[in-house]
Amino acid sequence: MHPAVSDEAATETALAPERAAELIAADAELIDVRRPYEWDGGRIPGSRNIEVNELPAAAESISKDRVVIFYCRAGNRSAMAAEAFRQAGFDAHSLAGGIEAWAAAGQPLEPDGGEVRKPLPAS
After folding, report:
1. Which residue numbers are catalytic?
2. Which of 40, 48, 49, 73 is the most buried (most CB within 10 A)?
C-alpha cells in the first residue's frame, strides 16, 4: 500500500469524488475504462484511458504498488474492473457514480469545458 494512504482506504471500494480526489493527490493511479470517444469528450485530469475490455491485456502496465482508481460514466464498468483487480491483488477502487458524480461535485475535467459523453449503443 502507498505510504500516504491510510488503512481505511484499503477497505473502501466505491469512493466518493472527494475521497477519490484525496487519493489522487496522494499518487493513486487513475484509469478511465470508457471508450476512447467518451474519454476524448472529457476526462479527469491525470487519468489514462484503458477501455474496460482491454484491461486484462494491460494489467502488467498497472502497478500493484499504488492505489488504483477506475472510473467510467456512472460507475458500473469501473466497479467490475475494480473487483477483478482486487481479486488479482491490487489495491483497486471504483469512483462511485463515475465521472458524472465527479463533475456534479465540481471536480475538474479536461479539456477545460469538457463534457461527459454517454456511450453509443452497441452495434
Report:
1. 72
2. 73
Kindly report the pTM of this predicted structure: 0.86
- Give residue 111's pLDDT: 84
pLDDT by residue (tens digit) across 44-102? 999 999 999 999 999 999 999 999 999 999 999 999 999 999 999 999 999 999 999 99
Q: Is residue 44 part of a domain?
A: yes
50-72 core/surface letters (b: 16 or more CB in 10 A; e: else): bbbeebeeeeeebeeebbbbbbb
Question: In a 3-state reduction of DSSP, which class is residue 105?
Answer: coil
**Pure H helices in the chain:** 7-11, 17-25, 36-41, 55-58, 76-87, 98-104
Instruction: Note whether 84 and 43 are within 8 A (CB).
Output: no
* Residue 47: domain span: 7-104
Give me the pLDDT at residue 113, please: 66
Is 117 a domain residue?
A: no
Structural domain count, the chain: 1
Q: Based on C-alpha coordinates, what's the Rg of the chain?
A: 13
